[in-house]
Amino acid sequence: MTATATDLSDLSPMWRERFAFFEQHGPLNTPEALAAFKALSYDEKLVLRMNWRALFLGIVYLPMLGLWRRWLMLMVAIAVGIGAAIVLRRVEVLDVSLPWVVWVVLLAFLSVCAASTNYAYYLKRTTGEDSYNPFIGESWQRPWF
């Protein structure tokens, strides 16, 4: 079942603000959305661009939002990244302590999670789309703030 604009009354004001922006301008990788994004204040950009709960609680937060497919892909990517770090450490290509590598890999993937959760949740609630693609709506050329 897909949600409509009237079904979003259970959302917090912060989510409604994000959804209103995406409804009006589309994902942040379109020129129209970029222009609108640049016109926002720093605080509004921060709320729209990053999901801080997803950054710090991404491992449990995405399934709570119903974005289990994105969560699954991020967990696979984290496992592959940590596995590659372990292999590189074993063959002595990587000369860094393993805990630091694990933290860097986790931070990188949770940053991707935090940057893409808002639009992914918007798609999930408004169109029912739940993609395995963790980069949906992302454009790495856009400014962060």
Topology of this structure?
Elements: H1 13-25, H2 31-38, H3 42-49, H4 52-65, H5 68-90, H6 98-126
Helix pairs in contact: 4-5, 4-6, 5-6
Please tell me about this protein's structure:
Helix 4 (about 50-65) packs across helix 5, helix 4 crosses helix 6 and helix 5 (about 70-90) runs antiparallel to helix 6 (about 100-125). The chain contains six helices and no strands. It has about 140 residues and is mainly α. The longest helix is centred in the C-terminal third of the chain and has 29 residues, at about 100-125. The radius of gyration is 17 Å and the shape is elongated. It has one domain. The model has no long low-confidence stretch (mean pLDDT about 80).
What is the quaternary state of this protein?
single chain
- Summarize the helix and strand pattern as letters: HHHHHH
Tell me the number of helical segments per DSSP (H or I, 4 or more residues long): 6
Question: Residue-averaged pLDDT, rounded?
Answer: 82
Count of individual beta strands: 0
**Helix- and strand-based class?**
mainly alpha
